[in-house]
Amino acid sequence: MNPIDLLLSPLGYDFFVRALLASALVGISCAVVGSFVVLKGMSFIGDAVSHAAFPGVVIAYLLGVPIIIGGSIAAIGTALGIGALTRRSGLRSDAVIGVLFAGMFALGVALFSAIPNFVGDLLGFLFGDVLGISVGDLAALSLLATLLIAIVALLWKELLYATFDPLGAGAAGLPVRRLDDLLLVLIAVTIVVSLQAVGIVLVVAMITTPAATAQLLVRRFDRMIGVAAVIGVTSGVIGLYASYLLDVASGASIVLVETLLFVAVLAITRLRVRSASA
Amino acid sequence: MTPAIEIRGLRAGYGDRIAIDDVDLSIARGSLTAIFGPNGGGKSTLLKCIAGLMTPRAGTISVLGEPVGVAAKRIAYVPQAEQVDWSFPITVEEVVAMGRTPLIGPLRRPSAADRAAVRAALERVDMLDAAERQIGALSGGQRRRVFLARAIASDPEIYLLDEPVTGVDPTTQEKIMNVLDDEAKRGRTVIATTHDLACAAQRFHDVVALAGRVIVHGAAQLVLDREVLEKTYGGHLVPLSGGGVMLLDDPHHSHGSHEGHE
């Protein structure tokens, strides 16, 4: 088969085209929230929130309601709970996150194991199945991406100030705590909507890796989001083809492409720094 | 006219540690006041309480005659350099533009007047040429000037500055103090914490000695008064053989458990 056919032949399948669109939308959404996550040092929260969505997903599955709704409730509840507990308990946030992360995930595993014949679906929940994405899932993803970009654009200067210098912003009267909570909700919803594509275990990479790669490359926050989105979409497309051609899990394949890009960019920027200082 | 800041019976701290207690303080409008004292003496805590960033355990604070928070848009707070993430992907101009953000209000874009205010503020601190640079590429003194420009751009009635001249070269210190002096002359109130007693004595009008409580509040020359220094710094003061004293005080090493806050 020649290379052109290799690229074109999977496009004959509707499921592959849907998967491409879904990966692109997930890539863009995760880049937007991921840039805030990386700069606020909240990657661990992203990981916790994705695992905390699990019991919500299972309960929604048992009740027969859309899993996005169950997952969102559990994820948003945990995300805001981490914020509130950190402020009130006097514990460091990483301890609070560790406790809630494991506790919620254990609840999900316990509920899941109580369902007869659960093994088949478990891998889908944990590692995602972008090739099985439905038209309804795609609609939800498009709505999320649009809302997310609109909210961030409308509150851009406030979010930028509160992210960069929460003390200065708070003293000037900006509602820093409410902006923080808004970001947590956006992170939680993005994670839940992305779960279908990449799964609970790997979604944190979709949030963190493209944004971290972008931070190595640019000097402005708005450009960082743009570059992260380009990296996210590109990795989604390359990863999906690799998954199709090599017959490996799609979520893992996308995340591996992102990781390789990160390592390559890190190596190139380090080399540049070293040759500049030599 | 009501004073810029009026504090009665203030107590505040972190966790189970009380940093300041029983603080009464009245700061007049248009004054240029330095707060000095040992590490852990509560300088930053006092500033954060006035800025509304910490809730007092007891006491009252009024800012421009209103409770804390009501006049937030009329104050500008500049945090210590250590509390800023200098690797953040943001340019000098964007940082200064933040000063306009509360004035512009949500869902609105900066106007031509906002952009002009940003450039004028950059010009005041001699940083207009660096407008497009990333903040991490600046020297320590330039970074302090950029944050001062952000405060200027917000056109505040009260400046609250945490260590604005710590660790900067003498030229930058001179520039920063000239701007603050001009602002005080225009009737703006400037309150800054500092470790630099020479700067406090020469460039400020008033000083507050703070060591958990207010030791003294008066004319700037009080920082050179031996009795005031002994009461404020206690064991950090070393007598010299000639009869003078020397202060052993390192601005970067806190003796308390909350270095990041002090």
CATH topology descriptor of chain A? ABC transporter involved in vitamin B12 uptake, BtuC
Helix content of chain A: over 70%
Largest interface: A-B, 25 and 37 residues
Global structural class of chain A: mainly alpha
Total domain count of chain B: 2
Write a compact overview of the structure shown.
By secondary structure, chain A is an all-alpha fold. Chain A has twelve helices and no strands.
Protein architecture, described:
With 278 residues, chain A is mostly helical. Chain A has one domain (3-273): ABC transporter involved in vitamin B12 uptake, BtuC, CATH 1.10.3470. Helices cover 85% and strands 0% of the residues of chain A. In chain A, helix 2 packs antiparallel against helix 11 (221-246). The mean pLDDT of chain A is 90. Chain B has 262 residues and is α/β, with parallel strands linked by helices. Chain B has eight helices and twelve strands. Chain B has helices at residues 43-51, 92-97, 101-104, 112-124, 140-153, 170-185, 197-203, 226-233; strands at 5-14, 17-27, 32-36, 58-63, 66-67, 75-78, 158-161, 189-193, 206-210, 214-219, 237-239, 245-247. A six-stranded mixed β-sheet of chain B has the order 6-7-8-3-9-10, with helices on both faces. A four-stranded antiparallel β-sheet of chain B has the order 2-1-4-5, covered by helices on one side. Chain B has a two-stranded antiparallel sheet with strand order 11-12. In chain B, strand 4 (58-63) and strand 5 form a beta hairpin. In chain B, helix 4 (112-124) crosses helix 5 (140-153). The two termini of chain B are 32 Å apart. Chains A and B meet through helix 8, helix 9 and helix 11 of A and strand 6, helix 2 and helix 3 of B.
